[in-house]
Specification:
By secondary structure, the chain is of the alpha+beta class. It is built from 17 helices and 23 strands.
Amino acid sequence: MSDDPDLALSALRELVTAATVRIHRTGPGHSPAVSGEFLGSGFFVAPGWVLTCAHVVDGGEGGEVTVICRSARPGEAHAVPGEVAATLPEHVDRSVQGDRPAPDLALVRLREPVDHECLFVSERPAPHYAEGRVFYAGWALLQGEPQPQDGLLTVRGTVGGWSEGVRMRLGGDGLPPGVSGGPVVDPVRGEVVGVLESRADQGSGGMSIGVEWLRTLPVPLSPRPPDLHRPDQHRPDQYRPDLHRPDLHRPDPYRPDPYRPDLHRPDPYRPDLHRPDPNRPDPNRPDPYRPDHRPQQEPPGMEPQGTEPQGMEPQGTEPQGMGPPGQGLRDPDRIDLYQAVCHAHDRYHLDRQRALGSGRRTWVDLQAELGVRPGRALSPDERVELLGRLADLPPPDSTRGLLDILDSLPDFRPRAMSPAPRGWRDGLGALYENARHDDVLPLLVDYAMRVMTAERPATPSVLDAEQALWGWIQQVSGRLDSGPRGDLLRRHAQHLDDRWRERSGRGRAGLPAGDRAREPSAGSALRHSVLLEVERRAWEPDQCDWSVAVVRPDGEVIRLDEGQGAGLAALPTGLAEPLAEAFRHCDEPGRPVPLYAALPQRLLDLPVDEWRLRPGAHPLGVERPVLVRCSDRDQPAAEDVRYGRYGDELPGTDLEAVRRDRWRRVHVHAVRAEVLDCDDAVRRPVPGLPELRGLPPGTVPVLCREGDRRYEDDETALGRIVQAGYGVVLWRRWGHPTGSVCGEFHRGARTIVDDAAGAGELPAVVHGLRNQLREGRTESLWARGIALLYDDPHQPLPGTDDLLEAP
């Protein structure tokens, strides 16, 4: 705890003002310097999410605003477009004059990513003060220009009585117009408790609306929020092939798979490239989800004879599970904004605390200085980790289910809560407020255990999240007596046994255990595709030759156009018409063909998916699946050989067999993502070829910071991964504003890879993410700049030595 209250208040002020924004009206020729366009204040509660008052963004859901915020990094303010995602109350009679009815709240989602700070929001059900002070911040018009303002206000009670009141009365100096929508912070606990609502005609002071009223946001009709990283399974899908026709490139749920390992066991032979990741199961510990801890091996003699699995493309098969661009990706009745924002908030603060080397003060640091211990039980570190672990789990099915868990806790009877709790964090706050101080820790641990064992689909990411929460429970329960600790161990063992029985009785995605991944057969292409080949000239490195071709379902390549001596910057313009012509040859109504960009190793990160064929058009990666292939995968970079980065192994005659084996395994086995170049937001060198070849066969390499050149061999990192035999690689381009905290990208990449029914789903998933980004979906901002190498070794490219020869 800090000995100097002024220093702690100064630190609090710095964190609060860094995340407080001003909101402007959006219009043609918008300029933030024009004060007439200034609407009011707001603050970041999660990455890409701003909380403000509804009267500040008056106009209702779907309205457009501009948010002007400070970057988390030194520099000028950013003006970012935003959309009003929700207002409370939802419907207001515009004919009624006067103040907007309570709760006067609105959520604004940013349409573009920006690196910014977020405030720490209280999880208590209704923080109330009989007396005391709160800190506020906002923007106000001073001498005609928006200027930041902050200060302290006294708490003078509530409006309407606390049992029914939504607003808290605040006294102090007069609050100028514009500060409405700013945060109200408890300076003792270091957490946001309300949103400032102020009017010029209210005299001195103002009103505060409790953040707990966000719980009254609409509940989606679906029992669970949709998986925002994957296509909507409940909407018509025009990409999906005839159900009676075999899909040769995704696992068959009705055949046993003798090759597929247990989806939820860590691989005991997986090398630790840098250090253990606390978000993932420890591969050196026994598997908690199987009684038999011996390494699972493939049955002998079960290798398929005479058939090699084919990839989804390029020779014709379409991505599965995606309809036309945008279809099924935006259904407000099925997206729980409250859960999405709260989970993003809690994951952000856990990621910020775990980010090494950022050098920035965190809310946990501040709360430690203030001596905050929620319920006198948890340290700030323990609290933020618990909230983050809970946020990695699917939310409760319903408020009733959450209340049942709270009611089941021994010797705990919470008072009626209004508004009712909806998320795991809300139940945690109820324990802080309602339990006797000497009983809080056992209740917290018991509650966490009940959340961990709640009924939910056992996907790989869910099981990882459960195991991470169990790690927190083990750590904190060390302060309990031996009796409660023994009970926790017994309950955990029972949960593992239940999970094992569930996994034994049901296969992937809840299908019968006797099911098997479908093994694709050769020569089974179902659709056309378009192939773009780009070759960099050895004698003119800044110049490229190119060709555009149509690939028929039978594998025949029909060259349509070609060009020579084009600069990289001129490629999008020069290729616009040839590509448009190729698409006209192949596109069907509602079924745009995929584009494959065959690129040399040094150009694998060429942003073909961001090209636009005409002014005002969507990027290519939004219009259709755009996937990358490597045109010179058999040619190691000269400098890698010279500097010995291949160790004692150079690509040999068996490399093709390695590629085919890895391709088969990631399409008919469980797959796992492995982030290779980033660890807790610290840049790491990509491993050398021997280490890459030593990764488990079901690995999909992921690069978080492709383009962030820190090490001498970074320029050849993607090529080195290809040389190691990988045909499926996921990365994001570092050139986009990504921020210093990488947790959301790591989490999102692992979710879409680990929970996929084989790598054949990834092209459709990546295409869906690009559509979500086009729509401004804040939940998908982590995927900005995402790219996918999907290079089927069974479908050879035309010879690179005759790139420009007629077929």
